[in-house]
Predict the structure of RiboL-PSP-HEPN domain-containing protein.
Amino acid sequence: MKIDFFACSFFHVLHGFKRELHNIKNFHSHSEIYWENVGDEIQNSMNGELNDADKEHHESIVDAYVEELIYAQSVSPNFHRETILVSLYNQVEFTLLRYCSLFNQEVMQQHDNFDKLSNRSVLKNIADYLDYTCRFNSDSYHEEWQYLRCIKFIRNCLIHSNGIVLKNFDDIQTFCNENNHFNIRYKSIDIEKGAIDDFIGVLFHLFEKLDTEKDLFVRSYVAQYGAPEIPLPNGALAASGTSSGPQTNIKKSP
């Protein structure tokens, strides 16, 4: 069966998410800068009061600022990073499920399998579908996929145990050893500045490679089954000044 791939929804899903990643990266960068500025303002205000006050009052001045400073420099940025990581992973999972579901309907001409793939072991279900049905070469994105798998473990810790690592400890510890901006402190996951930028960078590489695999599948499919004839509106060829010679896979509308 010949397919007009460009008219298929699945064809645009991966590229569309790459565009969305740029927006998320910009939002995250602005948030990090905001909390840095807030922390600097609090620190400067405290230093100003300390400079103007007698030494005997320094302790009370520091006490007045310390909680606000901790929230600006640690608690709030950490909460932001945890929220971004959870939300971004969920969005990645949903995007890949949607891609597989649309592919199943538009290319395989079968039912919507979104619910089936999202029923337990979601990431493995997606990986198997991309391997065996979409005919992707998983070796080309193995490193990024393993990274995503560990991010899922971290996301599960944040959701189910408030960041305490109760499961997959060895996998997460190995991941932290290989990625400097992630750490385990007192059995809790610590997401440092730079971690989200790293995560987004890996996702850019992953979706670029997935998009390449999609293009390879399309070329292989067209080589086997041929490209569809795309009808053009009446007068389109004449209006564009196109030669009246043979037109490959272009058919004038009646």
User: Anything to note?
Assistant: The chain has one domain: 8-241.
